[in-house]
Amino acid sequence: MSIDKRMIPFPCREAQVFAKQTAGLVRRLKAIGCKDVVIGLSGGLDSTLVLLVAHAAFGKLKLDKSGIHLYTMPGFGTTKRTKGNAEKLAEGLGLKCETIGIAKACRQHFKDIGHDGLTPDITFENAQARMRTLILFSKANMFNALNLGTGDMSEEALGWCTFGGDQIAHFNINSGVPKTVVRKVCAWWAKRNPGAAAEAIQDIIATPISPELIPGQVTEKTVGPYELHDFFLWNLVMNKLRPAALLKAASAYFAGRFGEEEIAATLEIFVRRFFTQAFKRNAAPDGIKVFPFELGPRGYYIPSDMGIPKAYRM
Q1: How many CB atoms lie within 10 A of CB 63?
Q2: Which of 41, 261, 289, 301 could form a disulfide with 86 if both were Cys (CB 3.0 to 4.6 A apart)?
């Protein structure tokens, strides 16, 4: 099967993507008269890009960069590598990054609800995400600041977020940018801005993607490669391809890189989560439209209770 250029997912001009995100944040800050933002800095790709956008937006607005409040919030799965990269990135940009550990508060929460605090189940994971969100919103209240969400479009498509946790914020910088593009834009920025921050970003790019809610957690081992998910997302929305056509197109496009069995398994995960997790993005905060479509009530909308349409069942 030959690949039509229109099937190639999310054509990326990194400078334009970054400029759109920066302009979107500048517009929001000016509209509400806000001079402070709060960011949870994890040492991962998404929060890295949010910080870079905020740093650029503050420069354009000539705001005091001390108004960028950064917090790294280590939990039960946080590694020295990611925490160290978060701190190095902040320092490289001339910013302070405060550490607020969440383990003690989570243990008290587990005790309060009758959880043993040891079983690494979904409650164990989501409580950490919600604790971090509580801290960020409370810090935003303290500084009359905007809590900037970090979740990207790929995560929104899959519902790979904690409802009432990283699913919410005051304003989501990455909701219009898929994971593969987030990686490219971070690499583009690092190439243009050599120094300590760029060195941290290069190691962040090389770090396996993980929410680090339990030790050794690797996202793509659970949901499959983001390259495939972004291909499916683009072609389902833009080209209206259904599962059989998506499988055929992906097998041709990724020939020699992913086997058909892995593509099919990842496609099944994508279709199931894309339709059943719509309730999360339907309650998501405002974001910035970067590509021809966005997800949720303001864009490509799927009713929360629709389920998987018959035409998309595998």
Answers
A1: 18
A2: 41
pLDDT tens digit string along 85-111?
999 999 999 999 999 999 999 999 999
Q: Which amino acid is at 87?
A: E
Task: Name the pairing type of β-strands 68-72 and 146-149.
Answer: unpaired
- Residues in the chain, total: 314
In 3D space, the residue among 122, 128, 78 whose CA is nearest the CA of residue 106 turns out to be 128
CA 223 to chain centre: 14
Q: Measure the CA–CA gap between 93 and 63, rounded to whole angstroms.
A: 15
**Within the chain, what is the greatest distance between any pair of CA atoms?**
58
153 in Cβ contact with 161 (< 8 Å): no
- What secondary structure letter does DSSP report for 68? E
pLDDT for 210 equals 96
DSSP 67: G
Kindly state the tokens that stand for 215: 């030790």
Query: What φ, ψ does residue 263 adopt, rounded to 5°?
Result: -60, -45
Render pLDDT for 20-69 as a digit per residue (tens, 0 to 9): 999 999 999 999 999 999 999 999 999 999 999 999 999 999 999 999 99
Contact predicate 295/157, CB 8 Å: yes
Q: How far, CA to CA in Å, does 246 sit from each of 274, 293, 309?
A: 14, 19, 16
Q: Which SS3 state, helix, strand or coil, does residue 216 take?
A: coil
Can you say whether the dihedral through the CA atoms of 283, 286, 292, 297 is positive or negative?
Answer: positive
The rounded distance, in Å, linking the Cα atoms of 160 and 164 is: 12
Q: Apex CA 49: angle with CA 143 and CA 237, to 5°? A: 115
Which residue from 13, 76, 51 is spatially nearest to 197, judged by alpha carbons? 51
Residue 116 binned pLDDT confidence (cut-offs 50, 70, 90): very high
Question: What residues have CB less than 8 Å from 35, skipping those under 6 apart?
Answer: 29, 63, 64, 67
